[in-house]
């Protein structure tokens, strides 16, 4: 929490002084950004086919590592809900990759049926859900790295998320609605 509270103080300082700080993260457009569960690391995913991880040092971000391996843009990423060393990326190359910051390597690559655009980790850390451009959501077992279920939707799926109790799954759609799965 210290990093998170520092970040808030830092943001307030920038706001009061009318300044913003910019940090070079990638060579192309950045699609996604997320904090680790302990608030110590910030990861970003980019059109340049990479993910980067940063640590906050005073009032600046310091790049800890760059993660390469995807064959297309990294469209979204998220951190494991309780393990601050693991994050997952969704890419247009039809793969999901699980990364470990301790080794700075990909620990698993999961092939999917389409170009992935959104991803989330269940609150219990057991399942990764990934949605693709064809409105298919695949549920991946986080331990075996295999698909456990897949569902094709007849509407545009824009974003996905579990509730904190891990017993409901939500999808936003192109019709202005939120759909609930149990």
TrEMBL record:
Xref: InterPro entries: Tex1/THOC3, WD40, WD40/YVTN_repeat-like_dom_sf, WD40_rpt
Signal sequence extent: none
A Pfam family reported for this protein in Swiss-Prot or TrEMBL: WD40
Keywords in alphabetical order: Repeat, WD repeat
PANTHER family: THO COMPLEX SUBUNIT 3, THO COMPLEX SUBUNIT 3 THO3
Gene source species: Chiloscyllium punctatum (Brownbanded bambooshark)
Name of the molecule in the record: Uncharacterized protein
WD repeat ranges, renumbered to this chain: 23-64, 67-109
Stated family: Belongs to the THOC3 family.
GO biological process entries: mRNA export from nucleus
Gene Ontology cellular component terms for the protein in this record: THO complex part of transcription export complex
Organism classification: Eukaryota, Metazoa, Chordata, Craniata, Vertebrata
């Amino acid at each position: 929490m210290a990093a998170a509270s520092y970040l808030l103080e830092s943001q307030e300082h920038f706001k009061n002084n009318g300044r913003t700080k910019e940090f070079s993260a990638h060579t192309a457009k950045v699609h996604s950004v997320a904090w680790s569960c302990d608030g110590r690391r910030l990861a970003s995913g980019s059109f340049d086919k990479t993910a980067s991880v940063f640590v906050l040092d005073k009032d600046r971000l310091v790049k800890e590592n760059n993660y390469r391996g995807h064959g297309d843009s990294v469209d979204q990423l998220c951190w494991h809900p309780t393990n601050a060393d693991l994050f997952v990326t969704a890419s247009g190359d039809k793969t999901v990759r699980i990364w470990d910051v301790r080794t700075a390597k990909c620990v698993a690559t999961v092939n999917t049926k389409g170009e992935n655009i959104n991803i989330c980790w269940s609150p219990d850390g057991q399942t990764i859900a990934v949605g693709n451009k064809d409105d298919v959501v695949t549920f991946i077992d986080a331990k075996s790295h295999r698909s456990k279920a897949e569902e094709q939707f007849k509407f545009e799926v824009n974003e996905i998320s579990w509730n904190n109790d891990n017993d409901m799954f939500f999808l936003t759609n192109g019709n202005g609605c939120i759909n609930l799965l149990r």
